[in-house]
Amino acid sequence: MTAQTIPAMARPATKPNNPCFSSGPCAKRPGWSLSALSAAVVGRSHRATLGKQRLQEVIERTREVLTIPADYRIAIVPASDTGAVEMAMWSMLGARGVDIAAWESFGLGWVTDVTKQLPLQDVRTLTADYGHLPDLTAWDAARDLVFTWNGTTSGVRVPHGDWIPADREGLTFCDATSAAFAMELPWEKLDVTTWSWQKVMGGEAAHGMLVLSPRAVERLESYTPSWPLPKLFRMTKAGKLTEDLFEGSTINTPSMLCVEDALDGLRWAEQIGGLPALCRRSQANLALFEAWVDGSPWIDFLAVEPATRSSTSICFRIVADWYTALAETDQAAKAKQLVRLMEEEQVAYDIGAYRDAPPGLRIWGGSTIEASDVELLIPWLDWGFEQIRS
Are residues 59 and 191 in the same domain? Predict the structure, then answer.
């Protein structure tokens, strides 16, 4: 059969029930509605007994779902994951040399902060292009290390923590947003861990989580940076950890609506079976995309190595011959055309590649995404790609 006689692909008849495939803020849990926030402690002080109880409950349920060790401290902090990472870096870096591993936009942002904003001299960077991991074994464990667990804008993740030695001298600073609640994290290998509510659990924005190991606490209590710290970054007083911060007394005023939403997501996670169930849901979504890529001539993962493929921020590059023959600007225009078509059809929202990443698609496959919606999305992507070819 010649190309001219191949029939056009039929427009799929059924759309995903939830077209929210954005990589942040992410889809709400299945069945979510505004009624989930009806018990929110609004119009009350977050420092009153009831407000503080809600904040403590977020910390306690987070510890339970993620199986965080009892001697690790957990805090709710301002400004999302970015605020949590900045808070940790500005408070603790500088005690020894620093290595930074970066392979996508957010990791490169931490490189900029450490090399151009903090007055640090002894800094090494371990970098790789989009689709690849740097050589993580090049990290000197006598130095501190800053890295992302899951590269949200590249779809490339750290596959395990075996490369982090138990007897390391430096601290590990892990940006785990888009990984926490969808991937197993080796807490014994992580000293500072951060994420935001609006990623895997689909919570509302502006709040970050900060987890400190005993080694990180020791650093805070034994080291004082040479630069001034704004109030939002201060975690110690008179050389001792501010314990209230890790018991629900936030530095600034949190949104109690967002707190209630975070609790709703944590309760849902507990009901479906905790972290193992959350991980299974995300992995099932990745498996559907893997089967699609294996059988499709026009699409491939941005992550080069299968072991490093993210199951949450799943990034794709278009590999059809006619597309790769285009100039880079024309490739980007065609990719954006496909993204717009999926939105116009109300099939998938916000699935374009991140602005700094190579042109392509980025589709969220985290724990709140139903596998049935992924199954319904895939035929639409094939149909949509056929439409933009003309």
Answer: yes
Q: Is 13 within a domain?
A: no
**Which DSSP string do the residues of 297-314 spell out, in sequence order?**
SSEEES-SSGGGB-SSEE
Residue 32 within any structural domain of the chain = no
Cis omega before residue 25 (within 30°)? yes
pLDDT at residue 289, as a whole number: 98
E strands in 56-178: 73-78, 98-102, 123-127, 144-148, 150-151, 156-157, 172-175
End of a domain among 245, 270, 295?
A: 270
**Burial bucket for residue 384 (CB in 10 Å: 0-12, 13-18, 19+):** buried
Same domain, 229 and 373: no
Nearest to 157 by CA among 148, 166, 165: 148
Structural domain count of the chain = 2
- Give this prediction's pTM: 0.96
* Domain finish residue from 246, 270, 294: 270
- For the chain, first and last CA: distance in Å? 20
Six token digits for residue 70: 């009892």
Q: Are residues 243 and 278 in the same domain?
A: no
**What is the per-residue pLDDT for 9?**
87
pLDDT value at position 7? 63
Mean pLDDT by 10 residues, the chain (390 residues): 58 98 97 98 96 98 98 98 98 98 96 93 97 98 98 98 98 98 98 98 96 98 96 96 97 97 98 98 98 98 98 98 97 98 98 96 98 98 95
Domain coverage including residue 333: 274-388
Which pair of structure tokens corresponds to residue 137?
Answer: 């074994």
Specify which residues 361 forms β-bridges with. 316, 352
Residue 57's nearest CA partner among 42, 46, 72 is 46
Q: What is the CATH number of the domain that holds 311?
A: 3.90.1150.10
Q: Is residue 36 part of a domain?
A: no
Beta bridge pairs of residue 73: 212
Would you say 146 and 99 are in contact if contact means Cβ atoms under 8 Å apart? yes
